[in-house]
Design brief:
Shape: elongated
Radius of gyration: 18 Å
Strand content: under 5%
Helix content: over 70%
Number of strands: 0
Length: 94
Amino acid sequence: MIHPFLVADLTFGTGRFNVVMGLTASCFGLGATLSNFIGQHLVENFGHVTSLMGSLLVSIVPIFVFGCYMPETLGDRGSVKAARGSSSYVVMAE
């Protein structure tokens, strides 16, 4: 349920909300399909432990991407620096 809120935050002011929602939903479907296919292949050829370790390693990647690129984790949300780098932020004059 948090997916639309993350997309809205990332695309605020760009007019690309529906495009990004469609792309991310497609990635979710593709990931669900490939996860079963690749997981079964790994279990058949290398065993359960290898398959689970592979899933663990793949699941860590989004955590690092999220931590590196979300404005909230960078401390740039609403700052002048963020306003210059992206047209999606509005800086209020004091």
